[in-house]
Amino acid sequence: MSKIADNLLSVKERIEKAALKAGRDPGEVKLVVVSKTIEVEEIREAISAGATILGESYVQEAKEKIEEIGHQVGARRVVPLFWHMIGHLQTNKVKQAVSMFDMFHSVDRKVLAEEIDKRAKQSGKRVSVLIQVNISHETTKSGIERDRAISLVSEIANLTNIKVEGLMTMPPYFDDPEDARSYFKSLRELKEEIEREGLENISMRELSMGMSSDFEIAIEEGATIVRIGTAIFGERE
Question: Which one, 37, 69, 175, 178, has least CB within 10 Å?
Answer without folding.
Answer: 175
